[in-house]
Amino acid sequence: MSEPCIICVAITGSVPQKSDNPAVPITVSEQIESTQAAFEAGASIAHCHVREEDGTPTSDPERFARLVEGLKTHCPGMIIQLSTGGRSGAGKTRGGMLSLAPDMASLSVGSNNFPTRVYENPPDLVDWLASEMRSYEVKPEIEAFDLSHIFQAVALNRDGRIPGKLYVQFVMGVKNAMPADREVFDFYIRTLKRLAPEASWCAAGVGRHQLEVNEWCIAAGGHTRT
Amino acid sequence: MSEPCIICVAITGSVPQKSDNPAVPITVSEQIESTQAAFEAGASIAHCHVREEDGTPTSDPERFARLVEGLKTHCPGMIIQLSTGGRSGAGKTRGGMLSLAPDMASLSVGSNNFPTRVYENPPDLVDWLASEMRSYEVKPEIEAFDLSHIFQAVALNRDGRIPGKLYVQFVMGVKNAMPADREVFDFYIRTLKRLAPEASWCAAGVGRHQLEVNEWCIAAGGHTRT
Ligand SMILES: [Zn+2]
Ligand SMILES: [Zn+2]
Ligand SMILES: [Zn+2]
Ligand SMILES: [Zn+2]
Questions:
Q1: Residues facing residue B104 across a β-bridge
Q2: Where residue A2 falls among pLDDT bands split at 50, 70, 90?
Q3: Which whole-number Å values give the CA distances from B41 to B2, B45, B214, B217, in the listed order?
Q4: What domains can be seen in chain B, in order of their start residue?
Q5: Buried b (16+ CB within 10 A) or exposed e, B159-187
Q6: Facing A122 at nearest CB: one of B118, B177, B181
Q7: Is residue B53 very low, low, confident or very high in pLDDT (cuts 50, 70, 90)?
Q8: What would the pLDDT profile of B57-100 be if each residue is shown by its tens digit?
Q9: A178: which chain B residues are within 8 Å (Cβ-Cβ)?
């Protein structure tokens, strides 16, 4: 491929705790340190979550601001993508950091089940997050947890709520959402190409599916998230 | 095909009101009358919702009991399927009519967006509805509003939470959920056959997509809902 492979690094995520793995970077300075290591190893996008002191996920704009500040200093040129995901807050608090005008932010456009609850992305919240991203010129990375989310992203793109070329991440392997299934992965790509030929995509396999999905991703010419 | 085509009739649904269409049967006696007409015309499954006096959807077991009673009298042999859908109630009230032990009941196994809100089917509610259906020997019709719902139905079937052969309905054309898309329809069938070769399926196109989806359905050998 002539296009360089974009490696997207999700340093922390919102789920793992120090009690699961003591190496998980939780504080902002730990996150900056490990992102810098990934950046020097070739990662070009940092997908960022932040945590409270006690490790619980948060959407606190002040913490995001410190992280963005540190990444700009230590990883110059790296694309910074902030998470607006629902594991770190509810309703509009999920978009409070968009005024920091990061390069990118994640955007879920539909709802689905998570291991023990509903991942709620009601239509009015999706519209509001998309409008904030337009205001601050933040490029959304669509998080597709299911097939209809690809159709929804295309609808938002066509009517201007998401301007420009779509960038979609397929998320697979979350319990009670879409499993890591190779035929679905291929159909996701085929559907996105059919509906939005200009779109880019990447894929993330969660937990034990990470390596498998990365391999499919590289083989199919998408970007990977590690 | 040697298998007879099962026509599934949804007399009322939970959305239309008399103000939209004065011909919509709202009261229990109107519902029985119009179901009988469909039964005499060849429909074999009645998919049933009930309404309050003022037309608002409800899950009231007493109303369902009167409807079941009337259908058993006027449509002998017709398969009665009661809706546990979330437009008529929240949480466990959605399954209060399962103790009537109807032949079938609808079962949503995942969450998704609806036109203005989240259709919430949290994992613990799905488990509870499935367990009530097992207790009263009610056959679930899985309502698949998105692709992952097919995977979820298969998972529930494999671990015994949904015993027997799966019966899945693909629902297409609801705004903010899966649109009526022919390639997705074909992929739904292919995926269900791959994961659960014994399963049966039907499909419902909502609103203006009803006729189109019925045509795909008949062409592909599934059952249709009118
Ligand atoms: Zn990515
Ligand atoms: Zn994330
Ligand atoms: Zn049906
Ligand atoms: Zn229904």
A1: B81, B139
A2: very low
A3: 20, 12, 17, 19
A4: 7-225 (3.20.20.70)
A5: eebbeeebbbbbbbbbebbbbbbeebbeb
A6: B118
A7: confident
A8: 889 999 999 999 999 999 999 999 999 998 777 899 999 999 99
A9: 147-148, 151
